[in-house]
């Protein structure tokens, strides 16, 4: 399941909703990305995320489909926010459920790595002096995503 | 054709989207980019380094030069930074 939303979400509620009434799930892994107060040595006071409505949903759905074809997943969820976010708030949530932990762990890792380099979101940081700047792509993220291509 | 700009491309061009008429100048993505560079200093700057500009046609990433039609939606944006 894919959700692209402006509103904040509750991690506990989301995991519970995914697993309630299911007795076949043995493992649930979740990853949450939060707004941090420092990036590349600069103090950050807030974050704004822009995205490409339509393409975002398509890309996330493709990434989720790919994960479900590679691993034995019983349920999966990707929530990604856009708009203004305060420090400490969640930006993204990935939840995967499988009979055993290996598939859930691997799939969650994959989903985040691919999402980082494929889903059309762009972060803009606000700093204490009132400046805003677009966040640059990280080489480490590109490398992390490539790992899943060579190991496929 | 509908053209969309995101992130710093949007900021530099001071435009989120525009509609342009199909012509030979924009018959494919390579031609469209060549034409974009001729539209003034801001456009020339934005399209000067194509390593940092991604292109999507009808909400799909393209790989290589892609033929364009009048109903197509073309988006220009920097490498993504979500997650």
TrEMBL record, chain A:
Keywords of this entry: Molybdenum cofactor biosynthesis, Transferase
Superkingdom field: Bacteria
GO MF annotation terms: molybdopterin synthase activity
Pathway assignment: Cofactor biosynthesis; molybdopterin biosynthesis
Reactions mediated catalytically: 2 [molybdopterin-synthase sulfur-carrier protein]-C-terminal-Gly-aminoethanethioate + cyclic pyranopterin phosphate + H2O = molybdopterin + 2 [molybdopterin-synthase sulfur-carrier protein]-C-terminal Gly-Gly + 2 H(+)
Cross-referenced CDD domains: MoaE
EC number: 2.8.1.12
Record keyword Disulfide bond present: no
InterPro entries attached to this UniProt entry: MoaE_sf, Mopterin_biosynth_MoaE
Family the entry assigns: Belongs to the MoaE family.
Function: Converts molybdopterin precursor Z into molybdopterin. This requires the incorporation of two sulfur atoms into precursor Z to generate a dithiolene group. The sulfur is provided by MoaD.
Subunit structure: Heterotetramer of 2 MoaD subunits and 2 MoaE subunits. Also stable as homodimer. The enzyme changes between these two forms during catalysis.
NCBIfam families: PRK10678.1
Protein name according to UniProt: Molybdopterin synthase catalytic subunit
Source organism per UniProt: Sneathiella sedimenti
Gene: moaE
UniProtKB/TrEMBL annotation, chain B:
InterPro entries: Beta-grasp_dom_sf, MOCS2A, Mopterin_synth/thiamin_S_b, ThiS/MoaD-like
Secretion signal span: none
Superkingdom of origin: Bacteria
CDD domains hit by this protein: Ubl_MoaD
Residue spans crossing the bilayer: none
Alphabetically ordered keywords of this record: Nucleotide-binding
Short name of any one Pfam family annotated for the protein: ThiS
Record-stated family: Belongs to the MoaD family.
Protein name stated in the entry: Molybdopterin synthase sulfur carrier subunit
Naturally occurring in which organism (per UniProt): Sneathiella sedimenti
Gene (UniProt): moaD
């Amino acid at each position: 399941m894919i959700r692209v939303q402006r509103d904040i979400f509750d991690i506990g509620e989301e995991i519970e909703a995914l697993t309630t009434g299911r007795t076949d799930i043995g493992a649930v892994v979740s990853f949450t990305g939060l707004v941090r107060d420092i990036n590349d040595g600069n103090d950050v006071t807030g974050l704004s995320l822009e995205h490409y409505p339509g393409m975002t949903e398509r890309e996330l759905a493709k990434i989720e489909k790919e994960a479900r074809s590679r691993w034995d997943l019983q349920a999966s969820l990707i929530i990604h926010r856009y708009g203004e976010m305060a420090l400490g708030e969640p930006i993204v949530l990935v939840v995967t459920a499988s009979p055993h932990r290996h598939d859930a762990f691997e799939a969650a890792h994959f989903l985040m790595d691919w999402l980082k380099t494929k889903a059309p979101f762009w972060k803009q940081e606000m700093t204490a002096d009132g400046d805003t700047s677009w966040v640059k792509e990280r080489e480490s993220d590109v490398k992390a995503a490539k790992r899943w291509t060579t190991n496929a | 054709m509908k053209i969309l700009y995101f992130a710093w491309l949007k900021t530099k061009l001071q435009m989120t989207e525009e509609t342009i008429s199909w012509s030979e100048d924009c018959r494919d993505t390579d031609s469209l980019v060549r034409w974009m560079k001729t539209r003034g200093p801001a456009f020339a700057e934005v399209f000067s380094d194509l390593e940092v500009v991604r292109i999507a046609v009808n909400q799909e990433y393209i790989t290589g030069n892609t033929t364009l039609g009048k109903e197509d939606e073309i988006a220009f944006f920097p490498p993504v930074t979500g997650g």
